[in-house]
Each structure stands twice: as C-alpha cells, then as structure tokens.
Amino acid sequence: MIIRAVPGPVGPCEDHRVNSGVERAVVVVSLVPALWAMVLVVRNRGIDGWLLAGAALVEVAVLVQLIVGIVLLVRTDRDVARLTFLGYLIGAVLIPPAGVAWGVGEKNRYGSAVLLVVFLIIPVMVLRLEQIWAGPVV
Amino acid sequence: MSEELADRTRRGPGRVLVIVYGIFALSAGARSVVQLTTKFHQAPLAYLLSAFAAVVYLVATVCLAMATQTSRRVAYVAISVELVGVLAVGTASLLVPQSFPEATVWSGYGSGYGFVPLVLPFVGLWWLWHTRSPATP
Fold first, then answer.
1. B37 and A83: CB-CB below 8 Å?
2. Which of B64, B76, B104, B131 is 20 to 30 A from A12 (CA-CA)?
3. Residues 6+ apart with CB under 8 A from B30
4. DSSP summary character for residue A84
C-alpha cells in the first residue's frame, strides 16, 4: 500500500502561486540558521562564524527571490498589488544585513537573538509575498 | 556616565528591542509609501494614520538606538504616542470599520501583525523605565 505523504498542488490555479521552489528555499535557508541562533541564545553566545555564514546564505536566497520576483511581476498580466509585492521583496533584502550590522556588536546571547528575529521574520515575509501574489481574499 | 546609560538602553535585550522596532519602522514605512502614492484618495484618514505610525516607529527606533538622555526622552514620548495610537486606532477600526477599508499597522490592535504592535509599546516603555538612570527622574 502506497501512502502519499505529499499532497499535490492545492491552489485553484498554478499561476496563483509565486515560484514555490524559490519560496521554499528561502524559508528553509532562513529556518536552519534560526535553529542555530536558538542554540547560541540558549548557550549565551554571540554571533559566530556559522551564524554569519547562515546570514550570508539567507541574503543570497532573498536576492535570488528579488530577481525572480521582479521577473514574475514583469511577466504576469494578473492584477497583483505590484508595489506592495516589490516592497516586501526589497525589505527582505535589507533586513539581514541590518541585523548582522546591529547584532555583531553584542558578544552574548542578545547578539544572536537579533539574528534569530531576522531569520524568523523572513519566512513571515515570504508568506505575505505568497498572499499578495494570490490576490485579495474576497 | 551617559555612556553607561546608553549601554544599558541599547545593549542586552535592548538590542533585540531596537531590531524589532526597526523592522516595524521599515514595514510600516514601506506600507504607507505604497498607500499614499497609489490610493491616498480611497481612505485618507487610514492612510495618514498609517504614515503617522511609520514616523512614530522610525523615531522610536532611532531614539532607542542612540540612547542618549535626550533621545530617551523622545523615545518615551514616541512610544507613549504609539501606545495611545494602537489602542485608539484599534478601537476605532472595530467601531467604524468603514473608515479602515484596508488594514493599517494598528487596526484591530495590530492583529495583522500578530498583535506585536499592541505588545511592543508596553515592552518599550517598560524597558526605558527599567534602564533609567537613578539620577534622572
């Protein structure tokens, strides 16, 4: 007996989803360093090399997301809240560097906690991007 | 002395408070720019409030990060305004929803943002009070 663990696409129309591969990558790439940030917070350590590397990966991921998002915006002829969508794409690119700059000065758990907040806010922004792309719920 | 005050204010948990305020300043600011430039005529009151909220968050972020005696006073004012704002706009958005056709940061007491806008001013005021210097009343 085969149990299908992964359900198929649920959306009413494939076009109503943002490029889900990129989205999923951004979420995973930010949640993994979020776990490490949690470890550092618990152990009262500041931002270490691994966490910085994680932040760099997150930044690469949101930059890719920005480019893919702009391409999608240019291509689609659906009525999407374009400026808001673009705002979230750009915001996601600005937040990680700001978090690193503000967090590295603190050599204890609170420095890592700054990046934890950053890594947790990115998936929330991805979720908002998806909602904006799907359009207003009427 | 004042360096001590600055360290108390913006270090430790203060670091985290500033980044959370910063993220809200960014998101409220971006949102209000979009609202004011593209559809101001649809709901001028709500969108002006949105812009006002963005300015309040920005002032609070900068003043908490600077953490001088003066900037702390400004932060007290900004965060108090924020508290009044989220309570007033939250209540108004429930009583006269037609004035708020599209959500602002503060409508529904910040329900669109996981109620963080409601909790944040309490935390901010508590933190300022907690880190006050004994010499300053």
1. yes
2. B104
3. A87, A88, A90, A91
4. H
Is the pLDDT at B98 greater than 90, yes or no?
no
A35-88 tens-digit pLDDT: 999 999 999 999 999 999 999 999 999 999 999 999 999 998 888 889 999 999
Do B54 and B31 meet the contact criterion of CB atoms below 8 Å apart?
Answer: yes
Q: Which residue has the tokens 């300022």?
A: B128
CB nearest A83 (choices: B11, B13, B34): B34
At residue B134, what are phi and psi to the nearest 5 degrees? -55, -30
| Cβ–Cβ < 8 Å for B125, B76 | yes
What lies within 8 Å, CB to CB, of B134 at 6+ separation is none
CA angle B135, B136, B137 (to 5 degrees): 115
Helix (H, G, I), strand (E, B) or coil at A67: helix
- In chain B, residues with a C-beta closer than 8 Å to the C-beta of A81 are 34
- Chain A partners within 8 Å of B14 (Cβ): 110
By three-state DSSP, how is residue A26 classified?
helix
Q: Which of residues 81-100 of A touch B (CB under 8 A)?
A: 81, 83-84, 87-88, 90-91, 94-95, 98-99
Alpha helices in chain B (DSSP H): 2-10, 13-39, 44-66, 69-95, 116-130
